[in-house]
Amino acid sequence: MRPVRGRLAPSPTGDMHVGNAFSALLAWSSVRARSGVVVMRMEDLDLPRVRPGSAERILEDLEWLGLDWDEGPIYQSDRFSRYDAAFMELKQAGRVYPCFCSRKDVAAAASAPQEPGDELRYPGTCRGLGSDQAVERVKRERHVWRFRVEAPCGPPFRDLVYGNQGGPGTPPPGDFIVRRYNGTSSYHLAVTVDDMEMGISEVVRGDDLLPSAARQILLFEALGGEPPAYGHVPLILGEDGARMSKRHRSVTVRELREAGWSSSRLIDELLELLGPGGSSGLDRLDAMKSGFRLNQVKGRKDGIIWGSGAPDKSS
Ligand code: GLU
Predict the structure, then answer these.
(1) Contact 8/42 with Cβ under 8 angstroms?
(2) Ligand 1 within 6 A of 13 CB?
């Protein structure tokens, strides 16, 4: 049997917070517990958002936590030509079309309820443009390229934490962006090409990305690849109940290190967040390495509060 291949895929847009550390810990443990291969992929796709030095700091933090990898780091910024090639393949197969709508147009369209996740459901305004007209407008107008979703329903798959998703009766995702205004690949296309070419068989990440899995599965199918298994894990919230993000005030691994926390203390605190049913006997990295299974994680769309993480309480 082929070994499981998982990945750690941080975005170098700021220091890693405890929520990032939590999903990385579970992704890593799930692979290591089955003697699999961990690929390190630095998701520096969105160059204007990348902070200088952030990638190095994240790699250091992961090493400090004891989360190692076998391949990489592979930088997305070195792979733009791969994403372009995949885009051309989709284009030649007629799976994409140019879209001239602004974000404002999409938001204003009456039939555009917000899709879960960060994207607006596209109402399909530019889907039916004749090809001559589209070719002409592409030369002159600002545009993105969207993937034409032909599926009648959300693609069915079994999430390793949240169970069955998609299938008959569920709405398919709206046509989504694969190439942005500036000609670079979207997150969905880059991640799919990467997961496909790196032979990733298991993706474990925060459950804010659960709606992304449907889009990525459709791209896998269009590009002739086999989608990995997906497991989406709960997000960690700040003490105020707000989602931790690199923009919002969040507790970073750095801060805790600087406040004198040991890595095993942080690992213990993170594992405690899994709850009594999920974490029994798994209070050490070694135990995670040998016995962890993702089905020990319970889905919680409302997130898990990080109660003890403020550095000033660490003494
Ligand atoms: N780079 C994304 C993040 O740091 C993860 C994307 C993914 O796992 O597909 O949240």
Answers:
(1) no
(2) no
Q: How far apart are CA 168 and CA 155, in angstroms?
A: 9
pTM, whole model, 2 decimals? Answer: 0.92
Residues 14, 85 share a domain: no
Q: How far is ligand 1, taken at its centre, from the CA of residue 205, in Å?
A: 7
Q: Cα angle vertex 300, ends 297, 302, to 5°? A: 155
If you measure from the C-alpha of residue 7 to the centroid of ligand 1, how many angstroms do you get, rounded to a whole number? 10
Strands 144-147 and 154-159: unpaired
Instruction: Evaluate: CB of 202 within 6 angstroms of ligand 1.
Output: no
- Stated as kind and residue range, the H or E segment containing 28 is helix 18-32
Residues 46 and 137 in one domain: no
**213 lies in some domain:** no
- Per-10-residue mean pLDDT of the chain, 315 residues long, equals 94 95 96 96 93 97 96 98 98 96 76 54 88 90 96 96 96 94 95 98 96 97 98 90 73 94 89 66 70 89 76 43
Q: Give yes or no for residue 43 CB within 6 A of ligand 1.
A: yes
Per the structure, the complete domain to which residue 295 belongs is given by 5-78+234-305
